Amino acid sequence: MCIKVLFMNSKNSLIKNSIYNVLYRCLGIVFPLISSIYVARILTPSYVGKVSAAQNFVSYFTIFTSMGIPTYGVKLIAQFTGKKECTNSAFWELWIINFFLSGITGIMYYLTVALMPFFYEERTLYAVSGLVLVINIINIDWFFQGIQEYKYIAIRSLIIKIISLILLFSFVHDKNDYLIYAIINIIALTGNYLFNIFTIRKYIKVSIKRLQFKEHLVHIFSLFGASLAAEIYTLTDTTMLNIMSGSKIVGYYSISMNVVRILRGLVVAIAAVFLPQLSYYYHNKKNDMFCILVDKGLHVLVLLTIPVAIGLMLVADDLILLFFGKEYIGSILSTQILAISVMSVALSNFIGLQILVTLGKEKITTFSTIIGAGVNIVLNICLIVRYQHIGAAIASAITEMTVTLFQYIFCRKYIEIKMRLIGPVIASLIMSIVVLLIKFLGIPIFLRLFLECFLGCITYFIIIYILKDEMIVDIITRVKEYMNRMKKLK
Q1: CB contact at 8 A, 331 and 324
Q2: Secondary structure class of 411 (helix, strand, coil)
Q3: What is the end-to-end Cα distance of the chain in Å, rounded?
Q4: Are 364 and 348 in contact (CB under 8 A)?
Q5: pLDDT of residue 83
């Protein structure tokens, strides 16, 4: 029964959507990885740090632009599946709210940059980076996630990322091109949103009659508290590093964060497709199906995040040196420390932004992130002065674990949560032995990193299968059944 839930509804099955969403996230890994490697070597740590600092500052204003709409929008649109009039009204209500928030926030940002002397030296860079706030007016990704159009999202993303990569290689050739790099990032974002504007006409008709905003504002502001606190503790480290240590140290830290975010994003993508379905089941009183999906989502995350986090700790040195060069050797230890957050952030995302939000317990998510923000700021003040980006990494890792633990404890009051850790931990330890043995081989770094990743993955899943993990066994059984059917047809 458990595994069957994942295959139901051919159009919007979770397995199908997971494949498309993982494909989308893989694109979000491959292309940013290629661009990060290229840009890191061309721009050097100082100029990478300048761009990262500008984007980090813009992110403070982005919090007020979104106000929790992305998460709430997915949940709301999913609830109205099959109800065109309700979906149409909900879309326009949220879009109008987003329009005004984006406009007001954009004005506030540009006034800040224009009036504060701190930004004068790099005012052009900050002006370009701020275009994100203006473009957010046409950000309607939450609608397509709500109707579970993950195939469209993946194809659109592939086209835009290819174009962006071509532009990057064509126009960014030395460190003086850092402004062009910032502009290309904006073009990539604009392309995605323009695709959405042309595609939305298939699903939504223009209608602004009898729109109601009050109920949405209550939920949006509730989620905004969580978003604000979460963004503060994810942005504070870079801001404080920029002020206290300079752009070069920010460059080291941003490379570590980019590597970790890439892997974290891939893991989160697999469980992210559960939100529309969880919202639908809960809204329609299908509590048994809801609980099954919660259990499956958590199990998938535990299966993947433990080996990914441990694996990244083990291969971080080879990965940084091979892809980014000796100039970024200072990023190795901070990457290893931040690897812990691969698991904690993925679990926090699922528990806080999927389970608790679906249950209408946004206040718990908000409170946990406020606690996280406080912990992060205190730790950053204590650690950055002495340990710079290493201290920021420690503060970030501890913060993420604190938030996840808080949400896990409170979520158990409303729904049973099982964390089956023994199998993944045993398999990860055996995988670690294999990876460490490969490190002693006197072979070129590229081949060594490939063997560490490939043989490490193979070892992990073999051990998990030997330990008879329910999900892995069910999936392999289904694959065997499918292959047998194919043979009979031939």
Answers
A1: yes
A2: helix
A3: 30
A4: no
A5: 77
3-state helix, strand, coil split of the chain in percent (to 5) is: 85, 0, 15
pLDDT of residue 420: 80
Co-location of 407 and 476 in the same domain = no
**Torsion (CA) 475, 481, 482, 483 in degrees, nearest 10:** 110
Q: Residue 167 corresponds to which tokens in the numbers above?
A: 């532009």
Residue 11 tokens, joined: 């159009």
pLDDT computed for residue 307 by the predictor:
93
* C-alpha 65: how far from chain center: 18
Name the domain boundary from 420, 448, 480: 420
At residue 222, the pLDDT reads 67
Structure tokens at 203: 């699903």
Write the DSSP symbol of residue 322: H
Q: Are residues 252 and 396 in the same domain?
A: yes
Give the pLDDT of residue 1.
42
Into how many domains does the chain fold? 2
Helix residue ranges, H only, 325-440: 332-338, 341-350, 356-358, 362-411, 422-439
Same domain for 221 and 350, yes or no, is: yes
- Report the alpha-carbon distance of residue 19 to residue 10 in Å, rounded: 13
115-149 residues labelled b (16+ CB within 10 A) or e (exposed): eeeebeebeebbbbbbbbbbbbbbbbebbbbbbbb
Neighbours of 378 (CB within 10 A): 12
Task: List helix spans (H) across 83-213.
Answer: 84-115, 123-129, 131-135, 141-146, 150-171, 178-199
- Please indicate, yes or no, whether residues 355 and 437 belong to a single structural domain of this protein: no
pLDDT of residue 8: 43
Which residue shows structure tokens 């969880």?
278
Q: Using an 8 Å Cβ cutoff, are 404 and 348 in contact?
A: yes
* Residues 395-405 as b or e (16 or more Cβ within 10 Å = b): bbbbbbbbbbe
Residue spans of the chain under pLDDT 70: 1-30, 32, 208-209, 222-223, 225-234, 269-277, 279, 475, 479, 482, 486, 488-490
